[in-house]
What we know:
The protein is α+β, with helices and mostly antiparallel strands. It is about 55% helix and about 15% strand.
Amino acid sequence: MLNEIYENCEMDMEHAIEHMQSQFKTIRTGKVTTQVLDGIKVDYYGAPTPLSQVATVLATDATTITVSPWEKPLLGDIEAAIAKANIGVNPNNDGEQIKLFFPPMTIEQRQENVKKLKKMGEDAKIAVRNDRRKANDAIKKLEKDKEITEDEAKRALDNIQKLTDKMVAKIDDIIKQKEQDIMTV
């Protein structure tokens, strides 16, 4: 019974961290990544289709992304979808492919991205604490229903707290690493 609570709690906390890391991909670091285009959908024969499924998307250098459609007639639709997504740059269509030129980030932009990063990290910590509360409530219910002893409940609550501390430290480490990536010119 307690092992099931531990496993569920740890799994939920890991999901919170994974979600935070997936959100981090939307934040620009010193060099541009193709993930900034992940949310863009193109109208492909009447169906909204992810950009990566209708074109080759490459980061050719630290500030440039090229999008080469697999079918030439899609060039205009892709250009319109990128422009509509408002990712901070205008698409340049040369008739063959679309190039996106990202200007180097200013110190202010970097600091703003670090603020967003810390907010996402704080949200992940809140999710981890909510998972701890859920597990603690389940343990206290078992104790109240006399399914476990008071000592077992105390040990279980201590273990959940240790797990929470470990996950919060992991979040802090990930944030510190990502902050370093953003602030590195």
